[in-house]
Design goal:
Layout: H1 2-6, H2 10-30, H3 35-40, H4 47-67, H5 76-100, H6 107-118, H7 134-155, H8 162-172, H9 184-212, H10 217-232, H11 250-264, H12 267-274, H13 280-283, H14 285-307, H15 314-329, H16 339-344, H17 348-360, H18 373-388, E1 401-403, E2 407-409, H19 412-438, H20 443-454, H21 470-484, H22 488-506
Antiparallel strand pairs: 1-2
Helix pairs in contact: 2-4, 2-5, 4-5, 5-6, 5-7, 5-8, 5-22, 6-7, 6-21, 7-9, 7-10, 9-10, 9-11, 10-11, 11-15, 14-15, 14-17, 14-18, 15-17, 17-20, 18-19, 19-20, 19-21
Length: 507
């Protein structure tokens, strides 16, 4: 009987593949955008790569949408499998320009890079991004903005109906329309409008900061566009191997920090602020947990770095310590410290601290990853309630409330949901750390790198590289995929797929 809950019929897969085809139609157009920098910079040799990718995507989309055409409504089980499959297929197709353009040494590395982009992780196997064709670099950064900045699923609001897709958004935590607008069209416009507004403002600020730090205007503009793509998307890719260290400027880093925090805040909180509800920031349980944990962990980071004599000046503590912590907590992955310094110079307690920050993550309904501050807040309130319960009279009716856009009761269902996701993350964290240690890496480095992959961060202590074992590459790809879709979505898809294959073998 339990198997029947996961088993999908041929009709179910027809529904999933039909809507996947519709999503890929949109993606085929997006893959043409790098043609603009390719033509502008005269990189004509990359044109066939993007045209081929777009053409193959369009061909696959047409085949799926026509051969699997159906009028059957989408249910939650279809929606979950669609989301999991969409990230995989989009990443596979987007890897073609990375491999053909020489960014990655092998198809597996290209798939790793592409999946890291779409999931907003930022772990990279590109060894020399400084000398990549700018169109290919643009493609890398666009993947993060598309996959995490506006979300593949949110993009599909323009393609699929509200009834069909709302279950995915709500389950995955991408229901950015909740409490905003009832209309799909207006919701989609609002999501895109706010995302592109933040992108444009971020690109302008990065460009001005880059020029101020001494870069030529052309380089500053291109880098500004790329860093704004990945800053708001809390992705962390950079067109430079040194990441933000390339600019060595505090102004540039402050712009990045502001954009990272904006990207890590709940999308509904953006809307509340823009509509004059400024008090929501101080009342919102999730926002309070996010800023409080960032403040506490940031303070511990500064104290540890100062007490160990690693950095002595206030500027260095801010630009290295605070920046790194904010990058970890927002799950962005921008770096102002070389990965080897993290592994060799920073004290081990700090690696644990950064790992904790990465696991906690940013806010729900944002571009960040991790367990999310809303779930942490719910679990903390539930813990406080249970600690008070023994001291209350037996006849007392106890309850707890939290404020998230509105006052809501702390129901057992909410606590159970938060506990399931948090437990799933911790189990994957332990499994990933043990697998990394099995390849000969130390416990601290293994925990750090696993946290980074699972929470879609992108910070590295030196493990992630083109030369790392194939098994570890596949492990981190699975962690990135499962972390981005918050585990349950992927498990439902994998179980349904496995049972479907088993059924076919038996037949």
């Amino acid at each position: 009987m339990p198997n029947l809950l996961f088993r999908l019929t041929g009709g179910d897969w027809r529904i999933i593949l039909y809507h996947l085809g519709r999503m890929l139609h949109l993606l085929s157009l997006v893959f043409l955008l790098p043609l603009v920098p390719a033509l502008f910079y005269g990189e004509l040799d990359t044109l066939p790569h993007f045209l081929l990718t777009s053409g193959l995507t369009l061909l696959l989309a047409t085949l799926l949408s026509r051969s699997c055409q159906t009028e059957e409504p989408m249910e939650l089980k279809h929606a979950l499998c669609l989301v999991a499959l969409a990230w995989l297929s989009a990443s596979l197709l987007a890897s073609l320009p990375l491999w053909l353009g020489g960014a990655c040494a092998s198809p597996l590395d290209a798939c790793f890079e592409s999946l890291s982009g779409f999931t907003g992780t930022g772990l990279s196997l590109v060894t020399d991004p400084d000398h990549l064709a700018r169109s290919v670099n643009f493609h890398r950064h666009l993947l993060q903005f598309l996959g995490d900045g506006v979300g593949i699923v949110a993009v599909s609001l323009a393609v699929l109906g509200r009834t069909e897709i709302s279950s995915v958004l709500a389950f995955r935590g991408e229901a950015r329309e909740e409490g905003i607008r009832p209309s799909v069209v207006r919701t989609t416009r609002l999501i895109f409008g706010m995302a592109f507004t933040f992108f444009l403002v971020g690109a302008a600020m990065f460009t001005l900061a880059g020029i101020y730090e001494g870069a030529d205007p052309g380089t500053a503009l291109f880098d500004g566009i790329c860093h704004s793509f990945t800053g708001y998307a809390t992705g962390g890719f950079s067109p430079h191997s040194q990441n933000l260290m390339y600019y060595h400027g505090m102004i540039y880093e402050i712009v990045a920090m502001v954009l990272m925090v904006i990207g890590a805040l709940n999308f509904n909180l953006h809307y509340a602020l823009l509509t004059g509800k400024r008090g929501e920031v101080f009342r919102n349980t999730e926002a309070r947990v996010f800023f409080l944990t960032t403040l506490l962990l940031g303070t511990f980071t500064v104290l540890l770095l100062f007490s160990r004599g690693i950095y002595s000046s206030a500027e260095a503590l801010f630009r290295r310590g605070v920046f790194q912590l904010v990058s970890a907590q927002t799950t962005t992955g921008f770096s102002t410290v070389p990965s080897l310094h993290l592994a060799l110079l920073w004290p081990l307690p700090l690696l644990f601290l950064l790992s904790l920050a990465m696991l906690l993550g940013g806010c729900a309904n944002s571009t960040s990853g991790g367990i999310k501050s809303l779930r942490v807040g719910i679990l903390l309130k539930s813990l406080a309630l249970e600690l008070r319960r023994p001291f209350l009279p037996r006849s007392a009716v106890v309850g707890e409330r939290f404020h998230h856009l509105r006052d809501s009761p702390l129901t057992p269902q909410l606590v159970r949901g938060a506990a399931v996701v948090a437990t799933s993350y911790l189990l994957l964290f332990v499994a990933g750390s043990l697998l990394t240690m099995a390849y000969g890496y130390g416990a601290e480095q293994a925990m750090f790198e696993t946290s980074s992959a699972l929470s879609n961060v992108g910070l590295s202590c030196g493990i992630t590289s083109p030369s790392m074992p194939v098994g570890l590459k596949v492990t981190y790809m699975l962690l990135m995929w499962m972390g981005r879709l918050e585990v349950i979505t992927v498990l439902v898809f994998l179980i349904a797929l496995a049972l479907g294959l088993q059924r076919r073998r038996m037949e």
